[in-house]
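Morning, I've got a small favour to ask if you have a moment. I've been staring at a protein lately and its backbone has me curious. You're getting the sequence in one-letter code plus the fold written as tokens. I've dropped the whole record in just underneath, so have a look:
=====
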Amino acid sequence: MTDHDLAAGLATAAGELLLGVRRELANASEGERKAAGDKRSHDFLAESLATERPDDVVLSEEGADNPARLSAERVWIVDPLDGTREFSELGRDDWAVHVALWHSGELVAGAVALPAQGSTFATPAVTPPPATADRPRIVVSRTRPPAIALAVRDALDGTLVEMGSAGAKVASVVQGISDIYVHAGGQYEWDSAAPVAVARAAGLHTSRIDGSPLVYNRPDPLLPDLVVCRPEFADAVLAVTAG
């Protein structure tokens, strides 16, 4: 099984597990659903990767950081449940599972599953649809759109699309639902590694907000900002964000 197939298969299977958690805990509190979803998906991914790729190291949002990753050639960067709040709210479909592989300095495989939408986007090749909107669409959180995204909207005369998790936002650019995702204010490597791998496979622009490369498997996994957009908007977006 290739690394691409493994990433896609694990993200999809973890998503199916999470849908089962939702059904099982439909009458539980949102907090109970969040905790169960995080733990069960993490346990499944960690155990599966230990079986399928026993020599690799795993960096997971829900697991203890293993310092061995800093000297490893292959590190799986996973977010077992991206968008726990959206997952906990029954009926929401904008949450995701992220599985990515970092190899010798680069993201080489990745998958973003949107279980409640029945979709998984994965490397090695993703084909985005052609642009259709008259004005660029900037995808933002429904409750807290960052000021930098509002600045991009104003500069490009764009419109806002509200959505939950980072994985769902990047997938919306891949799907053609939006054109630009810009974030500043706090994320970690597991929030963006798989979405960025998928976005790159779709030919989208990916970078920090100052235009510098996104670098993964660093000692501090904080990676607080990023831009993912259709390539035709990259220069205009960075003219705003890099300033």
About this structure: The two ends are 44 Å apart (CA to CA). Residues 70 and 219 are 7 Å apart (CA to CA).
